[in-house]
């Protein structure tokens, strides 16, 4: 016998319809509903359920899994305070790396770009590091372009008319290796990780290529490598620095605009440079706490 | 009437379903335990072995120290020059093959080393090794470009050659009329 | 933009393609369809009885294919289960495996319980292979006792109640996934989960309207006018809520005129002028709002009401799709340098091409067609009508 499976009614007088089965047997009581009460009940139930559900979707996620210290004054650092306020080590005696880029020294030679591409097999069309050029014209506007891989100089590429220029500078960009990295926070499979030395890496065996980290990075330094299908980015040449070599870009810079070293060693060249002049980080307002600091960073640089 | 038997009979389909769900759950947990990598969790919530794998990549760029192991005379030449900061690679190429050959030659005590090739003029191809006096190598850093800091020595080619009264302005090696590569200061 | 135009090198490649547009679209349809079935099973809107089973099965069909766009997008789909083996608790995306599995299980259970009497009937009465098939589905239990029917109906209601927050989380977490990306000012807002949910409910109701009227037309059955009118009313309300939230978000951004607003303004007025201005606002919001205004008036003749409802349903489906497109693709059309724009190339072929996208949308509908032949989605007592109004 087939049943019409009706739902529980709100008719309190219907004893035999407690479950829900209203058969076509005339001896059963009719299953009706009270229209006047149902609307109020509906609204009550609806608002409870909806508010309850909304509150579920707003459950706080664990915010971050960083091991960094305080981030309050990490944006603008005065000379001499680099080693005291900033996170200098993961735990006792643990090596902790940092990076400095000196905008006032960069000549836009592009040697770092070729060095990185060769050292790390970076596929064409993507970049683990690049150099931007900011040209402030006398009319107040700002032009931004990218240094070509072989460098401007000697490339016979057309250049800006120097007569119109107020000031201009080069800004090398690479992974900031943030202490509160949003990429690590959003990676669903723990493939985007921080090494004990503070270097942000991608585990090439676990990455599923979802590109969430690419979206979450505010600096645009990540990409999906079309050859390995993994997320890819500057690793500060982890393979070189663990052998006490310099990263390829640092090694190849002819003017010392890129400086790599240990933040946990008070006498490292990096710390000595950081102590000389004020340094800044990119997009400080986002709270990512980069370990890459810039000398001579202007507000136009994003 | 047997209420217990009734309930058990009434929920039979749910019991079977529950058993199926538990079975699937157990299998899933078992698979998961097998699929978690061994080194996972050793250093943190990640596969610790990944660090070793990444660190094991070979280095491609040779440092100046490697080149200077054999070419010590260059070190003396460059000692007082700002070009001591210029990587050998920038003017001579990576030299990966050259270095490997030289190392094997040193081991076997055979002094057979392939000659360095001439630079083919294309910056995009960093061939293994080249020795060149082509002005493009110098201009790659020293040609004046908007954006360079004032402290850096840069020239406008035409003006510089006029000022310095260069002999063969059109020659590719014109820089070497006055400057040397390793210690270009005058 | 002119002189200052600059795009970060890696930003030229749009990482999240149409597949990531389709995924929230599909889970939105799932959540919306489930809410309609919950309106009947939990909130006892008797008037929705004709679509209750259809709503449930529609939710199931779309949910079954929700993983497809994700697998097509992943660059390492063979490692997809990593999100369940080593999930990252701080990642919204890692929630997918568990939330989806839980919700799929819930849906399967509910559909199974709702249809169990029919499965048992057919298992007992049909001969040969079809009979065996249905007996399989009943898990070997070939009787529906009165007690078990009561327990089932209690469980159905419990699952439906549990399913509402579960549906909200299934689709809400996607909104959170976008809304919590501080790097992207087009995405970053606390309202994102709520906006996604509201438009999901609208899309689900719209889909059901269209599907119900389509099935009735095909079966030459008169669609229940009260049911259609009620659905239209809910659609109208959901549309208002969704559009209001989306509009509020935009108004807030424009008013505050924060540091990146200049880029977003240019984005809206140039790159998204057609997909946002024309499709999402004009065609997708204003038109159905007006049409539904008319359709929900009690004085409107039934035939006109049904026509307006189905057109509005289709328009809202377009609206929600363009909303997903404008959020996902729109958020990647500007570089993180906030100084330049990129193009999104949508090829015909490939894993993330138009053909694949078409398959992702069509397959759940085919599954629904299949299930409509296996399971009785309709009431036995519906009357047949020649004209099929």
Keywords:
heterotrimer; A: 302 residues; alpha+beta; 2 domains; 3-stranded mixed beta sheet; 3-stranded antiparallel beta sheet; disordered N terminus; C: 389 residues; mainly alpha; Formate dehydrogenase/DMSO reductase fold; 13 helices; 69% helix; globular
List the helices and strands and how they pair.
The complex is a heterotrimer of chains A (302), B (186) and C (389).
Chain A: H1 35-57, H2 82-85, E1 97-102, H3 111-120, E2 130-137, E3 142-146, E4 165-173, H4 182-186, E5 192-194, E6 200-202, H5 212-216, E7 223-224, E8 231-232, H6 238-241, H7 248-252, E9 258-262, H8 269-274, E10 292-295
Parallel strand pairs in A: 1-10
Antiparallel strand pairs in A: 1-9, 2-3, 2-4, 5-6, 7-8
Chain B: H1 3-10, H2 12-35, H3 49-55, H4 64-70, H5 72-78, H6 88-92, H7 96-108, H8 135-142, H9 157-163
Chain C: H1 18-41, H2 49-64, H3 67-73, H4 82-85, H5 95-125, H6 128-137, H7 146-179, H8 192-219, H9 225-256, H10 261-271, H11 273-295, H12 302-328, H13 354-374
Task: Write structural notes for this entry.
The complex is a heterotrimer of chains A (302), B (186) and C (389). With 302 residues, chain A is an alpha+beta fold. Chain A contains eight helices and ten strands. A three-stranded mixed β-sheet of chain A has the order 9-1-10. In chain A, strands 3-2-4 form a three-stranded antiparallel β-sheet, with no helix packed on it. Chain A is globular and about 75 Å long. Chain B is an all-alpha fold. Chain B has two domains: 3-55; 64-177, no CATH class. Helix content of chain B is 46%, strand content 0%. Chain C has 389 residues and is an all-alpha fold. Helices cover 69% and strands 0% of the residues of chain C. Chain C has helices at 18-41, 49-64, 67-73, 82-85, 95-125, 128-137, 146-179, 192-219, 225-256, 261-271, 273-295, 302-328, 354-374. Chain C is globular, with a radius of gyration of 22 Å. Chain C starts with 17 loop residues before the first helix and ends in a 15-residue tail after the last helix. At the A-C interface, helix 1, strand 2, strand 3, helix 4 and helix 5 of A face helix 4, helix 5, helix 7 and helix 8 of C.
């Amino acid at each position: 016998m087939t049943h019409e499976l009706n739902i529980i009614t709100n008719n309190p007088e219907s004893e035999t319809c407690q479950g829900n089965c209203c058969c076509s047997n005339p001896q059963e009581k009719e299953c009706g509903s009270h229209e006047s009460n149902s609307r109020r009940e509906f609204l009550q139930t609806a608002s409870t359920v909806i508010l309850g559900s909304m509150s579920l979707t707003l459950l706080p996620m664990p915010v971050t899994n960083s091991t960094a210290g305080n981030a309050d004054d990490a944006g603008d650092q005065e000379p001499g305070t680099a080693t005291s306020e900033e996170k200098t080590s993961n735990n006792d005696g643990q090596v902790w790396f940092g990076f400095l880029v000196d905008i006032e020294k960069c000549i836009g030679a592009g040697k770092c770009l070729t060095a990185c591409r060769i050292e790390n097999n970076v596929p064409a069309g993507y970049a683990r590091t690049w150099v931007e050029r900011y040209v402030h014209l006398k009319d107040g506007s700002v032009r931004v372009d990218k240094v070509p891989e072989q460098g401007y100089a000697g490339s016979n590429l057309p250049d800006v008319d120097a007569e119109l220029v107020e000031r201009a500078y080069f800004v090398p960009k690479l992974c900031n290796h943030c202490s509160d990295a949003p990429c690590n926070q959003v990676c669903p499979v723990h493939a985007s990780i921080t090494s004990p030395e503070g270097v942000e890496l991608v585990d090439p065996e676990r990455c599923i290529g979802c590109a969430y980290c690419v979206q979450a990075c505010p600096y645009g330094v990540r990409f999906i490598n079309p050859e390995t299908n993994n997320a890819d980015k500057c690793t500060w040449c982890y393979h070189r620095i663990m052998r006490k070599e310099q990263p390829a870009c640092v090694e190849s810079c002819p003017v010392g605009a890129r400086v790599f070293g240990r933040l946990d060693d008070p006498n490292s060249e990096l710390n000595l440079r950081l102590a000389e002049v004020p340094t800044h980080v990119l997009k400080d307002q986002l709270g990512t706490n980069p370990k890459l600091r810039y000398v001579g960073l202007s507000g136009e640089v994003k | 009437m047997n209420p217990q038997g009734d309930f058990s009979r009434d929920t039979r389909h749910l019991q079977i379903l529950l058993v199926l769900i538990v079975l699937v759950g157990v299998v899933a947990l078992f698979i998961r335990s097998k699929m978690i990598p061994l080194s996972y969790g050793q250093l943190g919530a990640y596969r610790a072995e990944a660090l070793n794998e990444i660190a094991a990549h070979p280095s491609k760029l040779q440092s100046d120290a490697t080149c200077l192991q054999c070419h010590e005379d260059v070190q003396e030449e460059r000692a007082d020059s700002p070009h001591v900061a210029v990587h050998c690679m920038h003017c001579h190429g990576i030299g990966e093959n050259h270095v490997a050959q030289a190392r094997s030659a040193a081991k076997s005590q055979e002094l057979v080393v392939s000659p360095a090739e001439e630079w083919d003029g294309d910056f995009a191809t960093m061939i293994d090794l080249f020795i060149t006096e082509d002005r493009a190598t110098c201009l790659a850093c020293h040609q004046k470009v908007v954006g360079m800091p004032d402290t850096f020595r840069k020239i406008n080619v035409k003006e510089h050659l006029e000022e310095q009264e260069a002999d063969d302005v059109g020659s590719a090696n014109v820089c070497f009329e006055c400057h040397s590569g390793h210690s270009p200061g005058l | 933009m002119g002189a200052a135009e600059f795009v970060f090198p890696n930003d030229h490649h749009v990482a999240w393609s149409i597949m990531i547009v389709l995924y929230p679209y599909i889970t939105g349809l799932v959540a919306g369809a489930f809410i309609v079935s919950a309106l009947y099973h939990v909130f006892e809107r008797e008037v929705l009885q004709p679509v209750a089973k259809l709503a449930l099965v529609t939710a199931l069909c779309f949910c079954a294919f929700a993983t497809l766009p994700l697998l097509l997008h992943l660059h390492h789909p063979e490692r997809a289960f990593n999100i369940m083996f080593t999930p990252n608790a701080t990642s919204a995306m890692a929630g997918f495996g568990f939330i989806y599995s839980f919700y799929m299980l819930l849906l399967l259970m509910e559909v199974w319980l709702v249809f169990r009497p029919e499965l048992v009937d057919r298992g007992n009465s049909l001969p040969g292979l079809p009979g065996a098939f249905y007996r399989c589905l009943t898990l070997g239990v070939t009787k529906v006792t009165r007690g078990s029917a009561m327990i089932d109906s209690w469980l159905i209601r419990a699952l439906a109640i549990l399913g509402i927050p579960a549906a909200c989380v299934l689709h809400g977490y996607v909104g959170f996934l976008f809304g919590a990306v501080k790097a992207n000012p087009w995405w970053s807002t606390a309202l994102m989960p709520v906006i996604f949910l509201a438009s999901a409910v609208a899309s689900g109701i719209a889909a059901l309207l269209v599907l119900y009227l389509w099935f009735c037309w095909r079966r030459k059955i008169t669609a229940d006018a009260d049911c259609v009118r009620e659905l239209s009313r809910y659609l109208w309300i959901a549309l208002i809520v969704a559009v209001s939230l989306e509009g509020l978000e935009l108004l807030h951004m424009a008013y505050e005129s924060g540091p990146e607003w200049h880029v977003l303004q240019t984005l809206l007025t140039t790159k998204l002028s057609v997909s946002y201005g024309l499709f999402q606002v004009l065609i997708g919001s204003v038109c159905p709002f007006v049409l539904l205004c008319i359709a929900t008036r009690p004085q409107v003749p039934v035939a006109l009401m049904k026509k307006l409802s189905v057109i509005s349903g289709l328009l809202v489906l377009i609206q929600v799709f363009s909303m997903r497109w404008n959020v996902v693709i729109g958020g990647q059309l500007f570089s993180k340098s906030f100084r330049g724009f990129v193009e999104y190339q949508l090829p015909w072929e490939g894993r993330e091409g138009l053909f694949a996208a078409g398959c992702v949308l069509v397959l759940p509908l085919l599954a629904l067609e299949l299930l409509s032949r296996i399971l009785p989605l309709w009431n036995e007592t519906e009357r047949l009508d020649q004209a099929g109004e």
